[in-house]
Specification:
Bound molecules: zinc ion
Number of helices: 10
Number of strands: 8
Mean pLDDT: 76
Oligomer: single chain
Structural class: alpha/beta
Strand order of the largest sheet: 2-1-3-4-5-6
Order of helices and strands: HHHEHEHEHHHHHEEEEE
Low-confidence stretches: 1-30, 254-308
Shape: globular
Distance between the termini: 36 Å
Largest sheet: 6 strands, mixed
């Protein structure tokens, strides 16, 4: 990670070793070892759980759910006893601050959901780990979901780790570094095209570009490709920003993503409570240099959009 000029630590001059000449120390000087990147610990946040332990907390939570939702909606839960036919498959980050069910008001049975680090989808590979592949296959082939939505988010630790990866730096984690390398192409693109942006802003761009990589990877699954060609499946990219309370979504019009510049970006924003939601769409390049906004949700690609 970079640092501004005022951030460099002031080093005290090394005390001279009387047993070694100055000339010798200069010749034998070696570069300081690269310090591994360790993400700072997150701030400790307390919740109003009245000091309950885990068993009490989950028991109380379930009782509340049963009293306020389960018992109040017998028609829904009776229907779910016979099976599920979710319309959506959702990829979301495992981050505890991101909760797609709550954020989008999804009902039980409405979305088949996978949550992992940075909501990433690896490319089709039968030799690799099959967790994600089996979820996609079941959702697409058996449940026949109509839409797969990959949702990135603000302040994503997985994306920060991805952007912090350096070839000469040892892995920080046993698994995380290798996992987020799914988005390595996006990282290189963001670094190449946004080198002047501060690290945090590069992360914001990468949070979207990593979603685009996952959308491309989804198209490498033969059953996804088949449904896309038939027009019975749609892929959507999205980014939820819990810092600004905003949500962006972009669509693949033809089922084929040739480049991220073919994206339509729709930004849904709300101010205050959800009941006073106002929605407008914003088309903008992912590097944020060009913006073009217009109102209305049911637009296809805007004629003056830089993507058109
Ligand atoms: Zn995340």
């Amino acid at each position: 990670m970079g640092a501004c000029c005022c951030c460099f630590p002031v080093y005290k001059p090394a005390r001279e070793n009387p047993m070694r000449s100055t000339r010798e120390s200069l010749i034998q000087h070696k570069p300081r070892p690269t310090t591994p990147y360790h993400p700072p610990p997150p701030p400790f946040i307390t919740y109003t759980d009245k000091g309950m332990n885990a068993v009490e907390r989950f028991k109380t939570g379930f009782e509340n759910f049963r009293n306020t939702i389960y018992d109040k909606r017998p028609e829904l839960f009776e229907r779910l006893k016979t099976g599920q036919s979710p319309k959506y498959m959702v990829f979301s980050c495992a981050d505890s601050r991101v909760c797609p069910t709550l954020t989008f008001g999804l009902q039980p049975g409405e979305a088949f959901t996978v949550r992992n680090i940075a909501s990433m989808v690896p490319a089709y590979d039968k030799r690799g780990q099959c967790s994600i592949g089996s979820a996609i296959e079941y959702a697409v082939v058996v449940l026949k979901v109509e839409c797969i939505i990959v949702i990135g988010h603000s302040c994503c630790g997985g994306i920060k780790e991805l952007l912090s990866l350096k070839e000469d730096r040892p892995n920080t984690f046993h698994f995380v570094d290798d996992w987020v390398k799914i988005g390595l192409a996006a990282k290189k693109k963001v670094e190449r095209e946004n080198m002047l942006l501060p690290f945090d802003d590069q992360c914001t761009v990468l949070e979207k570009e990593a979603v685009n990589v996952s959308l491309r990877n989804l198209q490498s699954y033969p059953f996804v490709k088949e449904r896309l060609q038939k027009g019975t499946l749609k892929l959507l990219g999205a980014r939820y920003d819990f810092v600004y309370g905003s949500f962006e979504m972009w669509d693949l019009r033809s089922g084929r993503l040739t480049s991220s510049a073919r994206l339509m970006s729709m930004k849904l924003e709300w101010k205050g409570t959800l009941s006073s939601t106002y929605i407008h769409t914003v088309s903008r390049k992912l590097d944020l240099r060009h913006r073009h906004a217009w109102h209305g949700l049911n637009h296809d690609l805007h004629p003056h959009s830089p993507w058109a």
